[in-house]
Structure formats: structure tokens, C-alpha cells
Amino acid sequence: MSPSRLPFRRIAAVCGAVGLVLSLGACSGGDDGATVKGAKLVKSGQITTCTHLPYAPFQSEKDGKVVGFDVSMIDLVAKDLGVEQVIVDKSFETIKTGADLNASVCDVAAAGMTITDERKKNLDFSVPYFDATQALLARKGVKAATIEDVTKQKLKLGSQSSTTGEDFARTHGADPQSFESSDAELNGLRTGQVDVIVQDYPVVQNWLKDPANAAKFEIVGNLDTGEQYGFAVRKGGNPKLLEMIDQAIKDAKADGSYKKLYEQWIGPMPKGADAP
Q1: pTM of the full structure
Q2: Most buried of the four, 58, 202, 212, 227, by CB within 10 Å?
């Protein structure tokens, strides 16, 4: 399916004391939700997605809209439901713990989120939709192919808070400086707060498309952590929606739309990445 035919994406508006204010948050009250094709939705006429911005190429804001690979994949589910997708920006911590889903802030979490046993305690995950690795990004001239290299050289390491990259660094003996967002992490490298950062490879790859970044930084190490991303719904609370998300992923891989979206947002697709 051509991306131009996908449902319109918008950022949710919140209700304030005076008028309506455009915000990256959720508007509460006044809607008892709906059930569409057996799937429970917190607001009628829309599937509400919690994410954490920015995290290109999976989700980022461009020209007033949130776009990216994750957004386009959930748009496939929205089309099957006959609704539009509305996106709210939330803390990654409240996404991964299931707090936002439990509070009916959103129906689905789509945030470039790795499936882990710990997160499965709080979330119901879809089938995997993306195989992920971590990368070490550093100023040109720095040599540190592994986390162990970073610690041996007493380099300052940065990570994004509450992520598997941060967890990986800590389990390999590092004590990284934690940044709230991927943009803040990159800025920490730019300003010299840290010497090296650990981040998902596709995110780093996207940063290096900017000539200003490519002139100063380079990938010094690739870390195969065996991670896979999944979308998530409320634990035990929305089995039909989870079923529809799984089916949308499987159908997209079967009909070629997954490959088109992958190449649109991420780049050349590795062999076998679209296997059911």
C-alpha cells in the first residue's frame, strides 16, 4: 500500500481551562471509548498510540505531523479498523511499565520498544516487527569498538534512559550518563558531556544522514544484542486488538508493504527481514 494512502496522523489536542491547546498529550474525559471489530479503543473513531518523541526513523515530528516506520505500521491497523491514528507523546518510562495503557491514555504503545521478559510482566507484546542492534557513536578519532573498550579507556559514555542500550552498557561494566531522550543524548555528544553514546543502530544511522553529524561523528562499534521490537497493548486487556496488530504485521510482510515501508523509513532491507 502506498504511504500516501495511509490514514492521516495527527497529534492529540488537550482540553485546557481556556480553549484548546495543541500539545503532545492526551485529552481526557467526554468519551467512553468504543469496541470496533472486537478491539477496545479508548476513544471512538481513533486508535490512540503512545510513543516517545523523537526517535527517528521510527517516530519523529515533521511539518506538524508525527511520521516514521512505527507510525506507518500502526496506520495499517488503523485502516483495518476503519479509524484514524492519533499519537500522544509520553515518557518512555510510563510506556514500558504499562502505566499509560493501564490509565487508558492509549490503546497501543509503539516506541521502537524492545521485547524483554521484564516488560512482558506489564505489557502484552505483538509478534516482533523489527530486528535491532545497538551502535556506539563517537567523535571521529575515538577508538572504542565495545563497551569494554570504553571502560578501559575511561571514556565518558552516554545512553538514553530506561532503554535496553543503557541496560546493556551497565551489565557490561559501564556507568553511563543517562539522557531523557535520544536528541538529548546526541546533544551530550555534541557538547562534549560524553565521548561515546550507545543507541539503536537505525537511530544512529538516521543521525548520520545529516552531513553536519557525519562530519564530526562515526560509528565505532556494532553491538549485536539479539533484540527485537514489538508493539504492545494493556496486559490481559485487549486480546482482539493484539490479534489485529499481529495480523497486520504478518500481512504486511506477505504482501510487500512491509518492505516498502522499511526501505522508505530505514533503508535497504537485510535479507530475511520480512520473513513471517
Answers
A1: 0.77
A2: 58
